[in-house]
Amino acid sequence: MRERYVGRQPIPEEYLDGYVEMLAEVSTTGRLPRREELEARKDLGEDAARRGYGLRPLVGRILEQTRSAWPDLPGMSGAAGARETRAAGESVLRAVEQVVDAVAAGYERAQLLAVRQEAADRREFIDDLLYGRSDLGHLSARAVRFGLRLARSHVAAVARGPELFDDIHPVTRRVESALTGRFGERRVLLTTKGGRLVCIAPDDQDDVVRYFAEQVRAATGGADCRVAVGRPHPGPGGVVHSYEEALGALELARTMGLDAPVLWASDLLVFPVLSRDREALADLVRTVLGPLAQARGGAGPLLDTLDAYFASGCVSAEAARRIGLSVRALTYRLERVHRLTGADPGDSMQRYTLQTAVIGARLLDWPAKEL
Asked: Is the overall model pTM greater than 0.85, yes or no?
């Protein structure tokens, strides 16, 4: 195949088949390119895009061929009068304009289809990756295309914001730009799933997930935004494991009322352990905290008091500040808990039992739900 080179792009001569002949006819008849001729040029533009030829070199080759053929076009010969030559030139230029427009339209159509296919392939890969429903060997092979090497350990960070995120959400774009600007070509995958923003990075790059958390909170203004980070796990199945841990941490934060902006699954391992045997946990809550239901106003206020007291490190002044009470009122409530349950929050051994029961109550949503 003969090729001509414009810049660094080789443009095959086949893309210009019939072009000069069409210009020759246009120069003598003044007609515009026919619909089928323009459709053929669109198809050529689409083919060029699929085969990796640049649009600028392609258009440049068309214009070069036009310039080369111009003096020899029948309508441009010296035998024609000045008016006829001018009219022929205008007809040829209109035809060239329509041909270039058709080629560009076909090229853009191919690019749009390629972008859509790439987006569909990426979404399919992410779904398979985060649901763990694909053959692991095939998943690892596909992952390289999207910048991941699944043979090593990875960690997943998941952000939940005040609204649902998708791939074109301004927060997604801003975080993606920040990560790219900061870490460049590192093997990091940023995506969305279920309205949440997800960042997957190798386990030795803690700075990536920490920066991801910072940028998400900055992009959302920190309002009702929380990020959870799963533990690192190896292999193709490690990503979905870490992702599920991060989701679990977000759900735990909602259930327990945890207010930390960034949650690390490794710091929350006690909660899955406690909830593993729900019947035993329910029995603990009923036995230890059940008598609080006898209090005026129910168990809720006293349970909130215990929660704040333990969360503040058993410092009465801080606990009172957290729930908007005076220290005297808080002390009265703690004494009331002691009288009803027989367990003293100030006693180290009894405090452990009470605190475990309070955690269990939050996990089981007691007293809102019957045990």
From this structure: no
